[in-house]
Each structure stands twice: as structure tokens, then as C-alpha cells.
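User: Acyl-CoA dehydrogenase. Structure?
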Amino acid sequence: MANFFLDNQDIQFLFSHIDMQQLASIQERFAENGDADYAPSDNAEVVDDYRRIMEITGQVAAETLAPNAEQVDRDGNTLNPDGTVTLHPKVRENLDRLAQADLLGFTVPRKYGGLNCPNLIYTMATEVIARADASFMNIFGLQGIAETVNAFASQEIKDEVLPQFAEGEVTGAMVLTEPDAGSDLQSVRLRAHQDENGNWLLNGVKRFITNGCGEILLTLARSEPEMSDGLGLSLFISERCDKIKVRHLEDKLGIHGSPTCELVYEDAPARLIGERKRGLITYVLALMNGARVGIAAQSLGIAEAAFRLARTYAHTRHQFGVPIEQLPAISEMVIDMQVAIEAARAFTYETSRVCDLENNTSRLVEWHADQLDKAELKSLKKELRQIKRTNGMLTPMSKYFCSEMCCRVADNAIQVLGGSGYMKDYAAERHLRDARITTIYEGTSQLQIVAAIRGLTSGVFDGWAEGYEQKEYADPLLSELKQQLMQGRSQLAETIQFAKQKSPAYTELSARRLVDGAITIMTGHLLLDQAANSDRKKRVAKRFIQSQMPILKMNAERVLSGDEMPLEEYSVLAGPVPTNAM
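Assistant: Predicted structure:
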């Protein structure tokens, strides 16, 4: 019986390597179980539940989602004349199967019928789902909306909406971008106003909305028309109705099973989530942080699917009398694909673990302060500030690292398959088409770098690295590799200081090379930590560190050169603006 969780040795390893008992303890400390039919009795049972949930997810992904993916990709969804969308029958079949398996309330508290899973388990499940069908993962991944409702909505809204998510009765969408407000969400113009009875109504247009045809919509809107910046925005919840129409379904390169909608609001009724004027600066930022980790997980799933196809083909395809995996150029490509996936997975799962620390520590500080003594509360507040700073760096790094890796692996998979990979006879071309969006939505790679660089220039990265540098390894190989990482951090510190002494524009120009260096060092430490418990991981860590450190050195030299030609001579080097770009 196929199972996308049980057949993945690296996920199995990480499930055992990460301290799931500690995670369960934090997650369950103040779990909202209410009158749930079931609640675990101890942490060991919680961890057993996590494994059981993952096994079920892996089975559904392998037996239902993956077989449906090709036809969904070919056919897509249907926009109806009345402004509604009919999902592909197999997308609907996928949703029904997940609902039957109780997998549509992943992070919802048990009192609402959910599974109360931490972000780390949700990330694992998201990767498994994305390996089966990257486009369907977008619908599955929008369970993050339920997290936002649970964290910030009124009790009335939570009691009404969360059970619907847990039962699989509804899907959702986060409705943020507009034709003139893509990455710059402060420019959102969709208007929210109150009628004479105090009811909120929304008017305007939203674009590029994933699953915008869903039943529950979280919409960012301008509630303060006199304010033109992000402080004038609030977050609202709306239900699918005839006042919200899908005007257009985007015709996309990939993720065809995921309906990307242009929405028109015409006096659409809505309810406020949380407080006015906090829509962007508090609620959407929290929502997007979760979404970015979700895209990192999606990237891992696509890359895993592409790699497995390439690995199998390289083993079975014979040329020049041997399997092509014996040709040095192919063998190096294949192993570097696998190492890249394991490196990115290590980074993303660590980010998810830190997300859980932040979420649960925030819950303790904000919801249960009256149950803590003053000393513990003071200590938790201090710890929370540090966790937030660390997570503020890790989250954009994960999204950037994984999505760029995903595109490389999917591209290399086609290269391994050669002409066959370019044909629709194999899924390789679908994986590449699906991969390409990961570097764009939920914030482009360039925006992730801008967000991450603050962690390097403010010392957050150094604090993280120092903790890992204190680890001692009995194995001489691991000790020597750790020394390489420490030398790399010293070189990176010099480079960061040089960039900071120049103009802010130069720091931004250098940011990608600096962030790449930090990711290399952090991932190297994570792999060394894994290698202490696995002989195979020693080889993975060695390959990753020895292949990436020369790149770190090269990037440092580029930054230290002080070359500002892209800033100073853009017009000369870019040439004139084409008069006919078609």
C-alpha cells in the first residue's frame, strides 16, 4: 500500500530526531479540548497521534491525490456565468477524502472538532500533500485561515466558523492583493464602510486570489479612508454570497487545480476580525508568516516528487551500455538534488519548530497570563521577544531557500530525463511549471531577502549561530566541518560589516549574497546536529558544507569588492527601454 509519509526516509528520520515530546508538551499545556470526544492522556500519546495523522495523510496523498493530479492539471476548474466556480470533480473528490479522514482541521483546537496539531506536523503534512499534487496543496494549505480566526476573531465568529473548517464543510481564501497592490499591501484600496446600522460592507476588486471561490474569505480592506498607509487597513471575514463574484479565473503556467480568482465586491457584508487598523500590521503579517512556511513546505513536496522521478529514470535509463546514473555528470546532479532537498527540509522543519515556540509562548503570555506567576511571566515575555526576532529571520529565509531550491531541482529533473522530460508523457514538466510560482507568491524571493537581511545586520543570526557553535562533536569529521562553518561565519561577519558601512542601497544590493551565506552556515549546523545520530547524515553534511563554503567565499569577495555598477550604471548596462517588447 503506497504511503508518501512512510516511504520518505528523511521525514521519518526527522520525525524521530526532533524532540516531539517537548513539542507536544508545549502544544498541550493549555490545549482547548472542551467537550471533545477524545483528548490524549499524556505526551507520549500525543506523539503517537502525530505519527498516526501523518500516516493517514501519507496514505491519502498516495492513493487519492497523486492519481488525480494529472487530469486536474489538464482540465482545471470552471468559471460559471453567475460568477461562481465549479471545482474539478477530482478536486472535490480530494476534499471529500480528506474530510472523511478528518484531515481538514489540522491546527484547529479539539473543542471545535480539530486535531490541534502544531505547525511542524502541519508542515510535514503540507509537504506530503504537495508531493502528490502541488496545486491541491494550495487549498489544503489555506487551513491557515482557521489559525488566524482562532487567534484574532471574536468568540462568536470562532464558534461559528472553526467547526465548519474542521468538518471540511468550507474552504477559505486570504484576500489581500489588488491590481495595483501586489507586494505593496499598504496600497490596498478595497473599501470597507459601515451602514447606518453599523454593519460593515466591502466594495472593490481583488486579484490573484488563491481559492478565491472558497466559502470563507479573509479580506484586507481600507476601513479608514483618511489614512493612506497600512494603519488604515483592517481585516474582515465574509461568506460566499451573490455580492462577491469571481470575474475572472487566471490562465496560469502551472498549479492548474488551484483556482486563482479576480473578485469583485459590491456591498458585500463582512464582519471585523479583531480591532480596526490592525489588519496589516498584526493580523495579515501573522497570516503571511504561516503562509510563507507553507510555501516552503510546498516547495519541498514538488522537489521531492521531481527528484524521485529523476532518480528512478537515471537508474533505469541505459546509454552507452550503462545506467545513466553511472555517468559522472548525471550522478553528481542526482546526489546534489537529494542533498539540496534534505538541507532545505532541515531548515524548514527547524523554522516550523520555532514557529510553534512563538505561537505557544504567545498564547501563554496573551491568553493565560493570569495562570502564571510574575517571575515566569516576565521570563516568558523576554523569551518571546527573542523567539519573534529569530522567527522573523527564519521564516523569509525558509521560503526563499526552499522555493529557489525547488525550481533548481525541478529544472534538473527535466535535464536528467532529457527529451523525455520535456514531453507531457512524464510529470517532470508539470513539476517545473508548478515549481515556478513558489518564488513569487506570498512574497517574491527578493522580498524575502529584504525581510531576512535585518536578522543579519541586527545580530540575530550571530546569536543563533553561537548557540550551535557551542556544540561538541566526538567525531573528528564533524568537528572539522564545524570549524569550517565557524570560519565561514567570521568571513561573513566581516562582509556584513563592510556592506553596512556603505550606503543602504549597497546593503540591499549585497543582501542576496549575505543571506545565502547565512543560510549555508545555519543549514550546515542543522545537518551536523543530525549527523551526530546518523552515519549517512555525516556524508550529507560533508557534501553540503564542502560544496557550499566555496560559494560563500566567492559571494563574500563579490561584496567586499564594493562593485556598485548595477546602481551607478543601470541605464548603460540595461540599455534603452525596448519600444516593442512583444
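The chain has 20 helices and eleven strands. The mean pLDDT is 95.
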